Every structure is written in structure tokens, then in C-alpha cells.
Amino acid sequence: MKFIIKHEMKGRMRVRLFQKRMTYEQADILQYYLLCNESVKLAKVYDRTCDAVINYTGDREDVIRLLQEFHYQTVEVPADVLATSGREVNAQYQEKLFNKVVFHYARKWFLPYPLNACYTSVMSLKYIWKGIKCLWARKIEVPVLDATAIGVSVARGDFSTAGSVMFLLGIGEILEEWTHKKSVDDLARTMSLNVSKVWLKTEDQEVLVPASKIKAGDRIVIRMGTVIPFDGDIVDGEAMINQASLTGESVSVRKTVGSYAYAGTVVEEGEITVGVKQVSGNSRFDKIVTMIEESEKLKSGVESKAEHLADRLVPYSLGGTALTYLLTRNVTKALSILMVDFSCALKLSMPISVLSAIREANLYNITVKGGKYLEAVAEADTIVFDKTGTLTKATPTVVDVVPFDGRTPDELLRIAACLEEHFPHSMAKAVVSAAKTKHLDHEEMHSKVEYIVAHGISTQIEGKKAVIGSYHFVFEDEKVVIPEGMEEKFENLPEEYSHLYMAIEGKLAAVICIEDPLRDEAVEVIRELRKAGLSKIVMMTGDSERTAKAIAKRVGVDEYYAEVLPEDKAEFCEREKAAGRKVIMIGDGINDSPALSAANVGIAISDGAEIAREIADITVGADNLKELVTLKKISNGLIKRISHNYHSIVGFNAGLIALGVAGIIMPTTSALLHNTSTLIIGLRSMQNLLDE
Fold first, then answer.
1. Which among 51, 195, 261, 303 is most buried, taking Cβ atoms within 10 Å?
2. CA separation for the pair 616, 165 (Å, rounded)
């Protein structure tokens, strides 16, 4: 691809491609291509100018080489990426705005007055009809006020004022619709599936294959804690399935053979085999969009209050208009109140503020499932961290395998990987990764695997019972014993590592030592969160007291709890809520799911278990915990913006009413200033909160 560099600074480059016109699809292909490269942090492609802005890390030459090697024809882009792109939507709404502005002023300046008056009268019928329908439903809300203002202006022959009011209302409607559509689509896109590999069931075994290789008719195995990647019929097994991503309801549903499984839902308990019905298309995206748009519960409290307040103000505006006329017998002064509509500005600015904040959070790899969760984060005073994979790095590593039964460390690691590869936990991933690094192939050698949440795994290997998991599970629940003569070796296990215990036939076979280092940014994040308003910071972990104490001391949390079970985390959240505190829970595993549901707002780490991400109200990227600080700042900023918008709207419009009643300004001027201020506040509400 030929291009020129238009502008450049360290880590950022703006280039222009040598092509006369760029289609929406081409722009999406280029953006996808750039973002798939590890050195590119952020990329935006502008189809109108054929420009691309690239933020990158690493060498400048690598980016230039990347652009030189680019060809539209050679890039394979998933169909869903192109189908759900918001680029065309943005272009459509930009065109709508442009056409509306051009048409309004062209009609105003060039259309003869009689025709202009006729057009305005006809167009006013739409707003008048909305007002009549509202009254017919025995409601006095915003449409009644708009209909009255426009209808009275037309009746008085003031077609200019009526036209201006309708024009500005139309602009406001387009802006609100555009912002809502864009924000919802952005949110839905981040919530759409991103499943890379699945377990394909063949006649005699299960094989881990790329999701792209699955076709209709294939059978795939879905285990506990895993997302269902494709729609299909359940042909084997039974499970409790969480369908919150589709229905908004967190209560799991029991499904058995013959039931239908929907893509994007999560297996909470059990194991099923699904016969795949559909492997392509954007049905998942459409379902999420519908859920977001229809779910009123996702609205923030302040947003809902603003909308209700807007409607409640309408009778007072109408009453004030009537009272002013009765006292002054001056239609002009009465109209000054009618032309100033508090409710319009409130109903426009509040939802735009919330949706814009959700969109901004998405820019920082933060997915928020509704405005009320941003409000909950802003109000929170307590935050609870899981340790493994949250405060510690998401990719722990195996540093040693200590044998206790005569087998070699590699043989024991191979067995452990065979057991652990089915389950999405960071410790399990560490074992599987270590085996892969050593090129230890592990054929399926066990019977059906049973996963015990927050404890471990139990199965049969060559007719012998095998377990792997925590100290509590292996030694206390399963009553495993240390082989005779190995007690001293067990006592001298290195304390600086987390331990994973594996036993066969009731005897300890191996201890896998796993390094679970603290995230580099953890200490700073804890400090910043405390500055942002969180007064109580807690760490909870299933790890040993010794390890928990060391980590807690290093990060600077206020309290820590060791050797806790999933229900312990949930109970803690419930106790804190009962004490009047607002609680945030942050976790990444299946064992964190109850607490994520129990907290005022649950936050999941993006590369954790699928069930944690589905149940959580907010998902943050796994790369850096600083995104939590960003989330808190956006949430705090949103509440401040909403409060500022409310006071600005009430103050400015009250001033317009006072000036109108005093006869200082005309109704036309009141309408113009009111609607202009509404648009300004609406546009300001679309700005990024962190830029202020």
C-alpha cells in the first residue's frame, strides 16, 4: 500500500493513503488490520479523507513496514466485525444533520412566505398530534408542552418561531438518537463473543480446535464456567445456564437434552454437548442491542430521576403560562414561559451524558453494561479484590514440580496438564502453558472430569482416583496423605510460591510450585483508588494465610482474608451492604461469581473465566489495573456533569422566563436561546469526561 506521512510525533503517526475514495468496508478492513498488530495501541481510519491515525509502541520502521505490506484483498476480517461496524451509522447521522440544517435555512431564505407558512403549518401537525395522543392517554408531559408552544405560534401567525422551535427540536432528536445508537452499538460490540477455541467432540475423543473451524452440525462440549459460542440443540448432558447477556436476568435456567442453547450464555453448573445450528452472522450482536435498548434497569438513578422530573415540570410550565396571561392579559409574556421548556433540555442532556460516559469507558477497554453501574461506582466507598489473577499477574507461571510418588517431574506435569486444560482458571492455564512449553503431549487419559468450584478437580486415571487443587481440598476434604518418608520434603517446600497439590489414590503425587507475582501497578492503583474516594480496600483469597499476609502488606490494603470460599466472599459483600456501605467486587474466576453478583457493582478482569465476565456489571482489560482508576474517575465525572447540567438548565431557563415575563425579551428570542442552550449542553455532554 502506497501512502505519505502527513504528521508525526513520537509514538503517533498520521498517514494518507494514495486512493481517491475509501469505502466503509475498506476503512474497517484497514482498522482491523492495524489493531491486530501488537505494536499498535490505537488506530483510527477516516474514510472521507483516506487518512489513518496510528498510536504505536516500538519501532517506527515496524509501523511503516506494516502499512507497506497491507493489501485489502489479503486481510481476513471476521464477518461480524464488518456487519456490526458503526462507521456507516455515523455517516448516516452526519448526513441527516447536514441535510436538515441545509434544508431549513434554504427554505427560510429562498422559499416564498406563503409557501413557507404552509409548510410550517403542515409540519406542525406532527407535534400537535403527539401532544393530543399524550393528553388522550391522560398524561401531561413533554409532547403536550411542545405541541402547545408550536400550535400557539402557528395560530398567531408567527411561523418563524414555530419553524425555529421545530427545527431545533428535530436537531435535538437526531443528536439524541445518534448518540444513543452509537453508544449502544459500541457497548454491544464489546459484549459480543470473542471465543477463539472450542472442544470439538468426535466419535472417540474431544479435540481443541479453533472456533473458525466449527461448522453447522458439529458437536461441541461446553463445561462449567464456559461461554456457549454457537446457537444449537443440547444433545447430551444437563446444566444450569446463565442467560443474563440475553435476558438481563441473572437467575440461571436448567437445560437438558432437547433444550436450545443460545450463543453468549454461560454454563454455571454441569456439562453439555451442543449440536451446532448456526456458526455465522450477527444474531448475538442483535440480541445484545435489543437487551440494552429494552432494559430500563440499566438506567442510572439520576438519569431516571431527570426524565421523571422533566415530565413533572410540564404542568407547572403550562400553569405558569396560564397564570401570567390571566394576570397580565399579555399573550407575548405568557408565551415567554411556554417557549422555555425545562424538560426538553433535561431529557436530552441526561441520557446523552450517561451513554457518552459508557462510550468513553469503552475507549479505555472498559465495558459497562448500564448507566446505573457507573453511578454505583461513583457512590462506592468499599472495594474488594480477589488476589490471584487480579492483584497478581494474570499469567502465573510454573517454576517447579516437586515429585512425591517416584514419577518424573515431566510425567507429573503432563498428567496435571491433562486434568487442568478443561478449566478456565489462571492456575490451570499456568500448568497447561508449562506443559506446552516443554512439548509434553497429553492425550486424554482420564474419565469424566468433575470440577469442584474454588477447590479443584477430581477424576479417574487408569482406574485410579486423581485429584488436583488447593490444600484444603486435597488434604482436608479428600483426606490425602503424604507418602511415608516424604514429610521433611513436604515441610521444606519453598514458601515464596503458591502451591497446587496433586494426589493419586489418596497419596500425594506432586506439588506444583507456581509463581504468582504482584502486578507492577498494584500498589499505585490502591493508592489512587483511595484518593478517588474509596475508604475501605479489602483483599480476599483462597490462598494460604502466609501468602495472603505478605501480598496484603505489600499492596497496602486495609483488610485481608485468607483461605476463603466463594460463599465467604459473597457473604462479606452482603454484610458490608447491610452496614450501609456501597461495595465494588473485582475478580476473574468462577469462584468470584457469587461475590460479583452480591456486590453493588461487580467488575471482572477481561481474560478471566467467561462466567465472571457475563455475571459482572463491568469488565476491564487485563493489561493494567490502572483502568480501575480511570473507571472511578469517569464515574465521578459523570455524576458531576449531570449535577452541573441540571443546575445550568434550571438556572438559565429560569432566567429566560424572568426576562420574558418582564417583557425584556420576545418569545421568539426565548425559544431561540432556550433551544440553542439545549443543543450546547447536549453537545457538551458528548465530550469526554477525562478531557475536562
1. 261
2. 43
Q: Cα separation of 242 and 160, whole Å?
A: 56
Supply the pTM of this predicted model.
0.68
CB 317 within 8 A of CB 341: yes
**Per-residue pLDDT tens digits for 39-57:** 888 888 988 889 999 988 8
Give me the numbers of helices (H) and strands (E) for the chain, helices first please: 24, 24
Q: Quick one: CA dihedral 329, 333, 335, 338, positive or negative?
A: negative
Angle at 148 between CA 142 and CA 150, to 5 degrees: 105
Separation between Cα atoms, residue 268 and residue 257, nearest integer Å: 16
Whether 180 and 304 share a structural domain: yes
**Which cell goes with 498?**
503458591
Final residue of a structural domain among 253, 268, 292? 292
Are 642 and 567 members of one domain? no
Mark which of 16, 46, 77 sits at the end of a domain. Answer: 77
Cα–Cα distances in Å, from 521 out to 52, 257, 285, 622? 32, 47, 34, 12
Cα distance between residue 409 and residue 415, in whole Å: 10
Residue span of the structural domain in which 235 resides: 197-292
Reported as half-sphere exposure (CB side, CA atoms, 13 A), residue 44 has a value of: 9
In three-state secondary structure terms, 41 is strand
Q: Which three cell numbers stand for residue 509?
A: 503425587
On whether both 477 and 433 belong to a single domain, the answer is: yes
Q: What are the helix (H) ranges across 329-424?
A: 331-338, 342-363, 371-379, 409-420
Instruction: Specify the pLDDT at position 216.
Output: 85
Give the three-class secondary structure for 38: coil
Residue-wise pLDDT for 508-534, tens only, equals 999 999 887 888 899 999 999 999 999
* CATH assignment of the domain containing 62: 3.30.70
First to last CA, the chain: 38
